[in-house]
Specification:
Blueprint lengths: L2 H13 L1 E5 L5 E2 L13 E5 L3 E10 L12 E8 L4 E5 L11 E12 L4 E10 L3
Antiparallel strand pairs: 1-2, 1-3, 4-5, 4-7, 5-6, 7-8
Length: 128
């Protein structure tokens, strides 16, 4: 990954930044340069940080870098603007369809001999 693409990836990862097509209005996450529906230019689009769980599943056969965290949940989340994205769930014992969630910054994994920590967005239940 180049420095520039890595930087763009990190910005979208931490800020929930997507893109919106200037012609047809299609919203994507992570961001894209061209619309996959009509081929037009995309502009930055700040996605809402809250939404609800549409579907979820538990992941038990873990990749090595996640192994120390134990099983986890991944969900399809419908954000408040209707955009659907995949997200890791956190701070939740048993997810349910329809639960309101919000994006939060959490540790994803540690790798390398130097123990580099990678952070990213996960979704936790909304506490009103």
């Amino acid at each position: 990954m180049t420095e520039i693409s890595d930087w763009i990836y990190r910005i979208s990862r931490y800020r929930l930044l997507g893109s919106r097509c200037v012609k047809c209005g299609e919203v994507t996450y992570p961001p894209r340069l061209k619309c996959f529906k009509c081929g037009s230019e995309m502009i930055d689009y700040q996605l809402p940080r809250r939404g609800k769980i549409i579907h979820y599943t538990s992941v038990k056969n873990l990749p090595e870098r996640y192994n120390r965290f134990g099983a986890y949940y991944i969900a399809i989340i419908e954000l408040d603007d209707g955009t659907r994205i995949f997200g890791l769930l956190t701070d939740i014992e048993k997810p349910e369809v329809g639960i309101r969630v919000e994006a939060c910054l959490r540790k994803l994994y540690t790798y390398g001999e130097e123990g580099k920590i990678i952070y990213g967005l996960k979704f936790r239940p909304v506490i009103d």
